[in-house]
Write a structure and sequence with these properties.
Elements: H1 2-19, E1 25-28, E2 31-33, E3 41-42, E4 44-48, E5 51-56, H2 58-63, E6 70-73, E7 78-81, E8 83-85, H3 90-96, H4 109-122, E9 129-131, H5 148-154, E10 160-164, E11 168-171, H6 173-178, E12 191-195, E13 201-207, H7 209-216, H8 224-240, E14 243-248, H9 260-267, E15 274-279, H10 287-294, E16 307-312, H11 328-343, E17 347-352, H12 359-371, E18 380-383, H13 389-398, E19 401-405, H14 421-427, E20 431-434, H15 445-454, H16 472-486, E21 504-507, E22 524-529, E23 532-536
Parallel strand pairs: 1-6, 2-7, 8-14, 9-10, 14-15, 15-16, 16-17, 17-18, 18-19, 19-20
Antiparallel strand pairs: 1-4, 2-3, 4-5, 7-21, 10-11, 11-13, 12-13, 21-22, 22-23
Helix pairs in contact: 3-8, 8-9, 11-12, 12-13, 15-16
Length: 549
């Protein structure tokens, strides 16, 4: 490997002398996990024009630096390729990020309520305080949900809305009054008021996903300016955690108008996370017409390296969404859309939860593949945590990938097993790691990596299929090279190799050797996207700012 590194450096020195290419930036004295085919570790790397010019020893990389080269001393810190969440509702999360209260990582109810209290101090009386998701009662030491009375003590002058998953909402009495909810008749279909054993209202609302989604949509919507501000802040929050890319699958609560904020940030050239996005069906029964209209000016791959249209997902049609027993007419409508997408070379990702019913989807894809080949389109299935080897074999034959989310991190069911990611790897199904944040789960990739490795839910519950436990190398691959496959970028990013885009993160702890139960506490000290420092704190705080794009 040393001979190979020396050869690379010799080539780069030749390139510098022949074409005048000097590194813009070099990183030295580090532990750089390249995540190449050999999972090589290097001391240093050089960046020119947003791409990696060379990797090698500190001494070798110093030789190709010029007088204007920026030198960043890693001081033995670990560097990884920028993480890529293959399934994160980032566009939707950004819309409300600057106006929501975040309970991600709070270890007690007191800490969570204090965040509400702090937010109330900065908000006008009467302004909504919203916790939109990404938390679980299992993360709290008290192992319970907060009460209405506790919310009202924390924020007596504001309506408060707290959502857990897509199944439960807690509101203050001011919130109920503001939304004029006094009985079940005032709630969306599929939702009802929660009562205690004595029949008294608790302040909670239970319901199915459509009902909870419809309830959330009754909250005041942030202005476009707030949405743009929230999008920028959310992307910076992802940068803080070493994320440089996401695959956004569309999903609930995201009509076409809600893409304007991310488009505005893109037009302003202020994107700090690479986003590939999908469009989802909006109106039940009219999805094909909507897709045809929305994509008339959106060919596959439209956009650039920071924001790019991918295809359709994850709710392609309402009728097939979370439907384990679709009828023939429902499958026929889905088939029509899938065929239309395949004929245009579009990507498609499909939300499917249960292996017991996934035959419905796989059979449809197999029929379509005989008519319009889809094996080269990089279609994928999201979720499907309990997939079987037989299903994975069928996915492999169709060229499908599998995006795996850590929603089981919040599981309370001791019968559940970890997703068989290593079986998928052995069979040859591409695996991309992710979170499904931020309504369902935390967007923290290191929490997800720790869960992949130790199989423990947030409350300590063990979920494990022993022969499918990945090692640290494989888990990191799933979050880098694996996720890049779904956006056709694995030759451009996902590893720190010569010629690839310089997306990387300098970590607070060494991912490879830190105790397993501390992986979830890792953050980034410095994050680069295309060689540009988009996040820097501590010893690198002064480096953040404009740079090569």
């Amino acid at each position: 490997m040393r001979h190979f590194a020396a050869t690379v450096v010799v080539f780069c020195i030749f390139a510098v002398s022949a074409w005048g290419q000097m590194p813009d930036t070099i990183l030295i004295n580090g532990k750089i996990l390249t995540v190449d085919a050999q999972f090589s570790v290097r001391e240093a790397l050089a960046i020119h024009n947003g791409r990696i010019l060379a990797t090698g020893t500190t001494a070798d990389i110093r030789k190709i630096a010029g007088p204007r080269t920026r030198v960043i001393d890693l001081e033995r810190r670990t560097v990884i390729p920028g993480l890529i969440d293959s399934h994160l509702h980032a566009i939707r999360a950004g819309l409300t990020f600057s106006t929501e209260v975040n309970w991600i990582g709070a270890s007690t109810i007191a800490e969570a309520l204090d965040r509400v209290r702090q937010a109330a101090r900065t908000m006008k009386p009467g302004a909504w305080l919203v916790v939109g998701g990404g938390w679980s009662p299992n993360q709290f030491r008290e192992k319970r949900r907060p009460t209405q009375a506790e919310l009202e003590v924390a924020a007596p002058n504001n309506p408060v809305y707290v959502q857990f998953n897509y199944a439960w909402v807690l509101m203050s009495r001011t919130g109920f009054n503001t939304l004029k909810i006094t009985s079940d008749a005032d709630l969306p279909a599929g939702a009802r008021l929660e009562r205690d054993t004595a029949g008294n209202l608790t302040g909670g609302i239970t319901g199915n996903q459509p009902g909870i989604v419809a309830l959330f949509d009754r909250l005041p919507k942030p202005t476009l300016e707030q949405q743009v501000d929230g999008t920028k802040k959310f992307f910076r929050e992802l940068n803080r955690l070493g994320l440089t890319g996401v695959g956004d699958p569309g999903g609930n609560n995201l009509p076409p108008s809600d893409y304007q904020a991310v488009f505005r940030v893109w037009q302003q050239r202020q994107m700090t996370v690479r986003v590939t996005y999908s469009l989802n069906g909006q109106t039940a029964g009219s999805e094909i017409e909507e897709f045809q209209s929305l994509t008339r000016m959106l060919p596959p791959g439209f956009g650039d390296e920071m924001l790019r249209f991918s295809g359709l997902g994850e709710r392609v049609t309402w009728a097939m969404n979370n439907n384990d027993k679709p009828g023939e007419s429902e499958k026929a409508s889905y088939y029509q859309i899938a065929k239309w997408a395949a004929e245009r070379g579009m990507a498609l990702t499909m939300h499917w939860n249960n292996n017991a019913s996934v035959d419905q989807l796989l059979t449809l894809f197999e029929q379509l593949n005989k008519e319009v080949p889809i094996t080269g389109l990089r279609w994928s299935i999201a979720h499907l945590n309990d997939t079987s080897p037989a299903s994975l074999q069928r996915m492999k034959a169709l060229g499908l990938g599998w995006t795996v989310q850590d929603m089981l991190y919040f599981s309370e069911d001791p019968t559940r097993s970890m997703p068989p990611v290593m079986t998928a790897k052995k069979i040859g199904v591409p695996v991309g790691a992710g979170t499904d944040a931020h309504r369902i789960a935390s967007y923290n990739p290191f929490t997800s990596l720790q869960w992949l490795l130790d199989g423990k839910a947030v409350g300590g519950l063990g979920l494990r299929r022993v022969d499918d436990a990945p090692g640290r190398e494989d888990a990191l691959r799933f979050y880098t090279q694996g996720s890049a496959w779904f956006s056709r970028d694995e030759t451009e990013r996902g590893s720190l190799e010569t010629g690839k885009i310089a997306d990387l993160a300098v970590l607070t702890k060494d991912y490879m050797i830190v105790p397993l139960d501390q992986i979830g506490t890792i953050e980034s000290l410095l994050t680069m996207v295309g060689g540009r420092i988009v996040y820097g704190v501590g010893p690198y705080a002064a480096l953040e700012g404009p740079g090569p794009r």
